[in-house]
């Protein structure tokens, strides 16, 4: 979400208004996008939440239901939007997105071309990176997907920074009116080597191209085409490993080394001989970090190349 205040500066500090999109946060693995409509309600396991109670509150506010359950109302930032958007196609996630935005050297004011749009996960992050003066031109050959993407960009407030076009970039290339206008080009296509010659024409001198491909065979063929007019060709695979942080109890005298760790049980109360006094049973605890049992594996290969300066 990239709303602008009257002075033209970007701000996420304004208060929630009717018609805004908010991310309702129940827990880290359960969120949903909700459009605020006066008179509507949200029902979940924590109770009934009236939208009218949300209007006028700041993003990040904690709101309560009639049952005293609560949720948080978060701004639909690109990171959160990526987690809750409708998957019309396979999407890029934060690890790949953050890497390619930096490696493409995208800064405010840049012009970026993208094909294809898909579910719009990356497009939203690109829009924030180029805001407030830049622009993203994104293309998808599927007309219905493009229409759905336009609706999503309106919801998240990036529609003024994004132009969605319906075009077969592999077969037709990018529009001629964009020749020499792009600071960066991103391709997410089954046959990216077909679009690389056109992408080269769109880039400014020293511009950068990135192609996302799930298969190494696609990377090999793309690199063969890139070598004709590009230099500094590099391919990366981004693997994200997350850790679980938990408190455990350290007990001396157990185990082979005389030291063991276990998750602390629920605290029990020990009553002393004095009436009304109680002492919590406690032991030494420490914080442990271990890799999560489920780790996201291969998503795709990111191939970068810089246009040769003649």
UniProtKB/TrEMBL annotation:
Domain tRNA (adenine(58)-N(1))-methyltransferase catalytic subunit TRM61 C-terminal: start-end pairs: 69-306
Record InterPro entries: SAM-dependent_MTases_sf, TRM61_C, tRNA_MeTrfase_Gcd14
Pfam families: GCD14
Location, primary (coarse class): nucleus
Protein residues bound to S-adenosyl-L-methionine: 119-122, 140, 168, 188
UniProt keyword annotation of tRNA processing present: yes
Reactions that this protein is recorded to catalyse: adenosine(58) in tRNA + S-adenosyl-L-methionine = N(1)-methyladenosine(58) in tRNA + S-adenosyl-L-homocysteine + H(+)
Molecular-function GO terms, alphabetical: tRNA (adenine(58)-N1)-methyltransferase activity
Localization in the cell: Nucleus
Stretch list, region Disordered: 255-282
Full protein name: tRNA (adenine(58)-N(1))-methyltransferase
Species: Spinacia oleracea
Gene: LOC110789924
């Amino acid at each position: 979400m990239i709303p602008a205040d009257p002075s033209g500066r970007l701000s996420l500090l304004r208060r929630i208004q009717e018609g805004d999109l908010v991310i309702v946060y129940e827990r880290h693995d359960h969120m949903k996008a909700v459009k605020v409509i006066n008179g509507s309600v949200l029902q979940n396991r924590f109770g009934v939440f009236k939208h009218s109670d949300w209007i006028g509150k700041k993003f990040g506010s904690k709101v309560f239901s009639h049952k005293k359950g609560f949720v948080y109302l978060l701004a639909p930032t690109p990171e959160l939007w990526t987690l809750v958007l409708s998957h019309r196609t396979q999407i890029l996630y934060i690890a790949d997105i953050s890497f390619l935005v930096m490696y493409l050297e995208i800064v405010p004011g840049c012009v970026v071309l993208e094909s294809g749009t898909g579910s719009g996960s990356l497009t939203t992050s690109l829009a924030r990176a180029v805001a407030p003066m830049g622009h993203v031109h994104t293309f998808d050959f599927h007309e219905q997907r493009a229409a759905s993407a336009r609706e999503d960009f309106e919801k998240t407030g990036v529609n003024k920074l994004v132009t969605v076009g319906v075009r077969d970039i592999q077969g037709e290339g990018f529009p001629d009116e964009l020749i020499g206008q792009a600071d960066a080009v991103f391709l997410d296509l089954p046959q990216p080597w077909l679009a690389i010659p056109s992408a080269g024409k769109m880039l400014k001198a020293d511009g950068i191209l990135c192609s996302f491909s799930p298969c190494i065979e696609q990377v090999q063929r793309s690199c063969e085409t890139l070598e004709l007019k590009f230099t500094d060709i590099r391919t990366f695979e981004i693997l994200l490993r997350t850790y679980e942080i938990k408190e455990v109890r350290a007990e001396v005298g157990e185990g082979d080394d005389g030291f063991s760790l276990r998750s602390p049980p629920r605290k029990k109360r020990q009553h002393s001989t004095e009436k009304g006094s109680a002492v919590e049973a406690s032991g030494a605890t420490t914080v442990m970090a271990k890799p999560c049992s489920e780790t996201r594996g291969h998503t795709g290969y990111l191939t970068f190349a810089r246009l040769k300066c003649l």
